[in-house]
Design a protein that fits this description.
This is NAD(P)/FAD-dependent oxidoreductase. By secondary structure, the chain is α/β, with parallel strands linked by helices. The protein folds into two domains: about 230 residues, FAD/NAD(P)-binding domain (3-Layer(bba) Sandwich), CATH 3.50.50.60; about 150 residues, FAD/NAD(P)-binding domain. The chain contains 15 helices and 20 strands. The two termini are about 25 Å apart.
């Protein structure tokens, strides 16, 4: 029988951060479960051409693991090297079970512990369960008539097949979000024809990337210099919330900047019209790229807007809504993830057999985006309303760890078995979140985005400054919890 004090599901930055924080707290009785056959999460899984982070690297890193980045916006290979350095530095590799795909988890009230059932590694038992599977781990592929008849190659950007040589081929990219904005410029010069199918255009801002010189990289190796740079970037980015939530004139100025950027990079007025969003900037994820627009203007690239979108797929290619047939050799699904309603992909059964899918039937929610009534000792990293559109997600993850570790330490110190947030505390917190959300561009910007659940609630984003969230997680509020 596999029994641990703490189990962590997922080995990406959320899982790594949880593991290191446990070690720093003197807790080493834990195990990490990873469904894939490798350790590392997003930046080891997403290896598509052009993959890179869209937050400056010194901020998109763990506070306890500085790194001498080669450029401001790190590319996938460097992010993977950073991930592997964190794993080695803190000795995490020997603490993981690979190919441990979780099928379901159940709370055992008699034993006051979780039973975690995996497909290949049996059942694990644990007092505390931390789900760190991440919001961008369940790829979504839309269905089109005839899709299974296609004789060419298809895959999602999340599962890029590097054994397939796309050079000189006719390629279709379905989707126009963040991953498409990276893939399109990377492969456009190498393919014969590239067809980009766009459902709705996104706002794009220039990418202020730069390579770090030898002296600058040396400075990044000094903790005081690294910390100073992180905070300078942090406060510069934190001001963006003013536009997203508090100031219509500010967001208007940003939108005008984006329109000028579009006009400068896309001279053709017809193509420019196709690329001009009808919603307020920030309502959907803002793309950060200086190469996406130029790639779309290439002679071998065609942008298909919604009215010319995919009607069906047959053996040789794509039939569009306006009656055109396009022969393609490869279809790449750049269609994102189930990041809202699919936050946790496996069934979770809590106290009195309460099912998480029933609790979240209307829309996912959680106290501090982390814990739920009727689910003792369960913590969700990057849970509902913890997304952050203006700064590093890792800042939020590290803030969540303050709360999670406080809960575990409090139970241990008092000689108790469980901690559970009260129903009224969760309701009060959730009401506050959605009251504040009304003022944000994500709710009022005139779009439907992956930030929203099927119910229309914005449940991906935190509606305020990231330091406000940090303050909420700094200290456990015992009155909001049931300790037993």
């Amino acid at each position: 029988m596999h029994t641990y004090l703490v189990l962590i599901i997922g080995s990406g930055f959320g899982g790594q951060c949880a593991a290191v924080n446990l070690l720093k707290a003197g807790i080493d009785d834990f195990r990490i479960l990873e469904r894939r056959d490798f350790f590392g999460g997003t930046w080891c899984q997403n290896t598509y051409p052009g993959a890179a982070v869209d937050v400056p690297s010194p901020l998109y890193s763990l506070s306890f693991a500085p790194y001498r980045w080669s450029q401001m916006f790190a590319e996938q290979a460097e992010l993977q090297r950073y991930t592997e350095q964190v794993i080695e530095q803190f000795g995490l590799r020997e603490r993981v079970d690979l190919q441990a795909d979780v099928e379901r988890v159940e709370w055992d009230e008699a034993q006051r512990q979780w039973a975690v059932h995996t497909r290949a590694k049996g059942t694990f038992h644990t007092r505390f369960l931390i789900n760190a599977s991440g919001p961008l781990s369940q790829p979504v592929i839309p269905h089109f008539p005839g899709q299974d008849r296609f004789q060419g190659k298809t895959f999602h950007t999340n599962h890029w097949d590097h054994s397939y040589d796309y050079r000189g081929k006719r390629v279709a990219i379905v989707g126009s979000g963040a991953s498409a904005a990276q893939v399109v410029p990377a492969i456009a010069p190498q393919v014969e024809r590239l067809h980009v199918f766009q459902r709705t255009p996104h706002w794009v801002l220039p990418r202020a990337d730069r390579k770090f010189g030898r002296f600058q990289r040396w400075l990044l190796g000094l903790k005081p210099a690294y910390k100073l740079l992180r905070w300078l970037i942090y406060w510069q980015f934190e001001t963006r919330v003013i536009a997203f939530k508090y100031s219509k004139p500010a967001i208007h100025l940003v939108q005008q900047q984006a329109l000028r950027f579009l006009k400068r990079q896309v001279p053709d007025p017809v193509l420019r019209q196709k690329l001009t969003p009808e919603f307020t900037i920030g309502c959907k994820r803002v793309l950060v790229s200086s190469t996406y627009y130029p790639a779309l203007t290439r002679a071998n690239v065609t942008l298909h807007s919604r009215e010319h979108g995919i009607a069906s797929i047959d053996e040789t290619g794509i039939n569009t809504a306006d009656g055109e047939h396009i022969d393609v050799d490869l279809i790449v699904w750049s269609t994102g993830y189930d990041a809202t309603d699919g936050v946790i992909s496996y069934p979770v059964s809590g106290k009195n057999a309460v099912q998480l899918r029933d609790v979240w039937a209307e829309y996912p929610r959680a106290y501090l985006g982390t814990s739920l009534p009727d689910f003792p000792n369960l913590f969700i990293v990057t849970g509902p309303n913890t997304g952050i559109g203006h700064t590093s997600a890792l800042f939020i993850i590290e803030s969540q760890m303050n709360y999670i570790l406080d809960c575990i330490r409090t139970v241990q110190a008092k000689g108790l078995r469980s901690i559970e947030v009260r129903h009224d505390a969760e309701r009060t917190y959730t009401a506050m979140i959605h009251r504040e959300m009304q003022r944000t561009v994500w709710k009022s910007g005139g779009c439907h985005s992956w930030y929203q659940s099927k119910s229309g609630h914005v449940i991906a984003m935190f509606p305020g400054f990231s330091f406000s969230y940090h303050l909420l997680t700094r200290a456990l509020k015992p009155a909001d919890h049931i300790l037993s």
